[in-house]
Amino acid sequence: MSLKRLSLWQCQGLLHVLRDQPELEELRLGWSCPGLENLEKTDVPKLQALTASLQEAAHLVPGRPIQRLDLNTSFGSPDFDLHAFDRLSLSTRPITYFSVALYHPREDEGVRAAIRAFARNWPNIESLVLTVAGPISGQTILDEIPSFQSIRELAFLDARLATADDLASSDLSHDYGILQENPLEDWDQLFSRLKELCPTLVKAWHTPLTIFYGCCCGLSM
Q1: CA distances from 82 to 40, 55, 74, 112, 129 (A)
Q2: Both 62 and 139 in a single domain?
Q3: In sequence order, what are the beta bridge partners of 131?
Q4: The pLDDT value given to residue 218
Q5: Single pTM value for the model
Q6: InterPro entries from the entry (predicted)?
Q7: What letter would DSSP give residue 36?
């Protein structure tokens, strides 16, 4: 049976499954789906949307018309391979939608580096979804998001804006002198200013922080 969409979880025979799906356009992979090292360039040639780990995506994206990428490996985590990440820029079509979780969001330089890496790999991103799981500096958002010159939709999930206390305890106060100014504490204010810097931005939104520094404070669905 030829499929357009396919979701798999813990599939040990993934390579054989994909070789039988030349019309596949959307693929969602859960954990434990090994075996893509021997994927041929002619396998799943029409794949446009992919949800996968970094290692799986590094095998599937190059040479295929991927336009939507949902990465389920946190950027900057100990197992995050930057060489594999660079391979994600090798789609035959521009990736216009990208979602990923950030690792250690309190380290502002790490957040800045992540956003810059996304802009470097995918300058044509129109929709960017970042799961923060912590505070994020409004100034970092204002500084870095305008690098996406085609951005239309922007979302920060499980996030709150960094306060003066957050900034005082992070590398921000040392590297940017950000404490000389009042930190942005209102998302509406932030998004209003951001839209002035990003003429293409149509929609920006966030979901409030529910899990903070390993403490479960609630669940959002």
Answers
A1: 23, 10, 12, 15, 20
A2: no
A3: 101, 157
A4: 38
A5: 0.85
A6: LRR_dom_sf
A7: G
